[in-house]
Amino acid sequence: MTYSEETPLPSLPSVASLLSATHGKWRDALIDGGIPAPKLDGERHSCPRCGGWNRFYALPDVDQHGRVHCDRCFNAATVVGVDGITSLQWVMGADFGSACISLSNRYDLPGFPANLRVPIAITKTLQEYAAALRAEDPPSTDIAQISLDFQAAATEEKLRECSRCLNLQEPSLQRLEVGWSQSHEAFTFPMEDGWGRVSGLRLLSLKRGETWSLGGAATEGLFVPIGLVAPTSRLYIAEGPVAAAACLSLGLPCIGSSGRLQCETLLQYKLMTLCPMECVFMTDQTGMGIGGGRELADSIANCSRSIRLVVPPKPYSTISEWLTSSSTRADVEEQVEACTVYSRRESGSSAS
């Protein structure tokens, strides 16, 4: 092991206590972390992370200790001290602290601090692994550079214009790295994949009232603000960058999705690293908005301890319209508390 199993954290369980609580339960924990259940049968399968054919398998003690193996990207040669926690780190793409937080939340143990020290050996291995992934499947250099160019073109005057027209605070737009495209006469918002790489751009023309996307993964991506850290007690999820910026303007921790159902997998990975205690889906007051919110809530049911669906109160029809009116953070939180915790529709429950 590269970390001490016997040294307890002040007023918190030791890592040994966490491992003891999860002994015999690692199969479910790894499934929740993202490894498909059929791949934990002890036979060889394609790797759930690197995708290599016939190179991944679960070790015989997977239930007791959570140990898995990939010939290429997760084995004794690439990771020092393979156990359930490092297996969870690997499949979630998370650091040591986030993996511990995820486990402590799932098994109702006291939470681990977000600044829990990550063992140097594991940190180095994860960084090298992430670098290898990016080298094999690099983001579009063109779209990433274009995004930076657009950000550089967003002058203070343009930021004020966007802020004034959308009734949003400038710092919220800056956290979403808003840019300006003169050739398109539109503001730009970068979308990222589950690894934080720029995967596309959402363009917004205030003059024409139109939105469209650029990039290879144009219909999929997340709008993640700068400075969002784990763990998050309550995370708001809105559709589109404008609604996300509206939440941020009220001081609400929020990420945006570019399209409800298209973002399922990306959102699952992001939530596994953010470890929110509760997710609040902000949906428009329309059949498509509510229906899409429910579909997405079903897909991430295992990524949060509770989920709520919130629609704007009458007379507002959209989240952006509601949040950019005279609403305050207290108004939004009151609306959230009035909503029942969401249950999957097959259980017969629905959102308020």
UniProtKB/TrEMBL annotation:
Q: Which domain of life is it from?
A: Bacteria
Q: Any idea what this protein is called?
A: DNA primase
Task: Supply the source organism for this entry.
Answer: Aporhodopirellula aestuarii
